Amino acid sequence: MKTLFHLDQNELPNQWYNVQADLDRPLDPPLHPGTREPMPPSDLHALFSETCIAQEISTDRTIDIPEPVLDVYRRWRPTPLQRALNLERLLETPAKIFFKYEGASPTGSHKTNTAVPQAYYSQVEGIKRLTTETGAGQWGSALAYACQTFGMDCTVFMVRISFEQKPYRKTMIRTFNGEIIPSPSDRTAAGRRFLAQDPNSPGSLGMAISEAIELAMVSENTKYSLGSLLNHVLLHQTIIGLEAQRQMELAGETPDVIVGCVGGGSNFAGIALPFYRADRLSGRKTQFVAVEPHACPTLTEGSIKYDFGDTAQTTPLLRMHSLGHDFVPPPIHAGGLRYHGMAPIVSRLVEDGIIDPIAYDQVDVFASAIQFARAQGIIPAPETAHAVHAAMEIAKDCAQTGEAKTILIGFSGHGHFDMSAYSSFLDGALRRNASP
Amino acid sequence: MKTLFHLDQNELPNQWYNVQADLDRPLDPPLHPGTREPMPPSDLHALFSETCIAQEISTDRTIDIPEPVLDVYRRWRPTPLQRALNLERLLETPAKIFFKYEGASPTGSHKTNTAVPQAYYSQVEGIKRLTTETGAGQWGSALAYACQTFGMDCTVFMVRISFEQKPYRKTMIRTFNGEIIPSPSDRTAAGRRFLAQDPNSPGSLGMAISEAIELAMVSENTKYSLGSLLNHVLLHQTIIGLEAQRQMELAGETPDVIVGCVGGGSNFAGIALPFYRADRLSGRKTQFVAVEPHACPTLTEGSIKYDFGDTAQTTPLLRMHSLGHDFVPPPIHAGGLRYHGMAPIVSRLVEDGIIDPIAYDQVDVFASAIQFARAQGIIPAPETAHAVHAAMEIAKDCAQTGEAKTILIGFSGHGHFDMSAYSSFLDGALRRNASP
């Protein structure tokens, strides 16, 4: 039975899908962090490329992918769609489980899908360097890869504790020519301030964001880049779902349920939004399941409100689900799911009942990830493992009810750089986190 | 321009190619370690499955791949063939560089190609467990994956120094349900002997082989499994070249040069031998380049002779290129290329002038690997990096001469579990090894 569904390179979609054309009400505008007044997009010009800012507020339904971006995408895209037939057999479920494998990218996750166009647009506008922050390292390695592809420099502020605990990610960033600085650092005024408060600070994503933004603001030909949350990031990620639609057709199936993990929301939106569009056209009702960790339950226990993107309250305020910008999640292994906020687009679709959020504990998540790895030969990233676990729970329900649901997993990345998390689980050392 | 060449799952070859049908003289028989007399295959029954022993001496040109093995292969095979167009542009070469990407396998290297049939044949014969040794960990993880796929146990003796230095590989083996024991250990008489001599022994592949063989001999329903060197292992690896032939046809090209790294010789033979067969039929003369490290120059500086496979002189003697069974190579990062001997089939074809061996220093090899990674977005394993470097040298020669050679690289695996080697190189801490 056929289980691998490849598209040819010439079948790569050449437009992204922009859900802002299909929201029942427009998104609420960002607010200025000082005045708390709606903020004109032009206020973002110091930080982001013109094209990304234009995409941030565009309501065009489709946006052309530039040919140089397609050229780079084609180095690994279209990514494969696979059917997890062995997992189905293991679970003795009548459900069919498919997964769209973004681990095939150069840095092993979906993050390159937006890193490449962000770097391209910046280069076209004469920018010589991008700065950013990274926690687990997936985003930092993706942006480093994208920048060197277009002959640009990349400076990554990596949360110091991750910098020390994840030497392999750090080396990958350097291999792709990225400059990597443990944060807090003495390279910025903000960093020096943090260090003055605590010379041994382990750092945080909030601190690293402050440093990356500051360095972009004070440096020549330098802008800042964000790897999730914003509308243009989610736009770029729709390449995942657009490919998956064609591949599900090849497989002769239509998904009843689409499952993805959510940190900032971009990989989930990437696979889900094109199917949401199809639902609007056909009247079909796909179930969209956004999976988050118990330890950082932004959608399941947070509330929708205007909130800052960073701890230091320097970013514009976005209307989104949030646990509060000062929320500090426990140190779970899914570093990409530890963010306090959520993409405004995903928040809106949860608010409107289109997306169903659910939260799981990491111990259950890793147990499922091990089963998946043994059945399918692919080790999921800890973030991705949340989606895998949720899909397996649905498939097990099907085994009880006899329903033959078709489940599609947004498989955001492999776990090759996160094996210490698996080691903790196998040692029985992984802690169960009570929800906060 | 098309750079990715996929075969559909139903185009997977269903037979391996056995080069023993096409050697001008039959291979020399193994000798008994005690008597030094030619050894009947039946003497191997205590160690290997009946089917593998039959394949070891078969002269049938093709051998059917069992359907259950094809079923497992199809989880990731056919692997992609890619054209390294960005690398060509970087080198400003008229050469065309293709690579056959075995990093797509569950454990990230070609090793699963033989682990799966070895586990399958053993299971059919009622074996419940396989034992083996592993150095860098690629083979141990592949056999663990294959064993759990067929419901068998797997015990891996991992050289203690690697066990301590490569925690991620260790965790991968455990994730795939393998039992992993640092060697030397107190689980075997041999291990206890080694420990009595040196309680802090870092171990060696020779010691680990002795332990794995002993455990197989003294345990019920247990056999031993070897990941390279032997004829049946090379046979299983020909799936690589057989796929690559069809994919090169899709690309509309015929390779002038085929390049692969050689440790025991199996991945190189896997890509090269089917093209050697085609040469015999067509009268064409492909250049076959076997690349090894300066630090372990088995083919370039060793001699052909009967020698033991292990340090302790317990294995049958094979007629092969060898640096001597007591050769201890310096601790280079390409752990898979540190073996003193070479597959008898590869040795024969070098002896007959069919294969051209060449040796490079690891410092030059890593410099090329970084260039490749930046151009193509794929980080080669340190072993694979040797093949990449050799191919780049040939492509640079073409830039000088204007020759438009078509080069095919056997890309044996990715380097996600070897990033510490890249870190050493980027830190400038990698040593240049004088050849011994």
Tell me what you see in this structure:
The structure is a homodimer of 436-residue chains. Chain A has 436 residues and is α/β, with parallel strands linked by helices. Chain A has a domain at 4-8 and 68-108 and 230-426: Rossmann fold (3-Layer(aba) Sandwich). Chain A has helices at residues 50-57, 67-73, 85-91, 112-124, 138-149, 160-165, 167-175, 189-197, 205-218, 231-251, 266-282, 298-301, 344-351, 362-376, 382-401, 419-426, and strands at residues 4-5, 15-17, 62-64, 81-83, 96-101, 129-134, 153-159, 179-183, 222-224, 257-261, 287-293, 303-308, 317-322, 355-360, 406-411. Chain A has a seven-stranded mixed sheet with strand order 1-4-5-15-10-11-14, sandwiched between helices. In chain A, strands 8-7-6-9 form a four-stranded parallel sheet, with helices on both faces. In chain A, α1 (50-57) crosses α10 (231-251). Chain A is globular. The model of chain A has no long low-confidence stretch (mean pLDDT 94). Chain A binds chain B through residues 2-4, 6, 8-10, 74-76, 86, 105-108, 145, 148-149, 167-168, 170-172, 174-177, 370, 373-374, 376-379, 416-417, 419-420, 422-423, 426, and chain B through 2-4, 6, 8-10, 74-76, 86, 105-108, 145, 148-149, 167-168, 170-172, 174-177, 370, 373-374, 376-379, 416-417, 419-420, 422-423, 426.
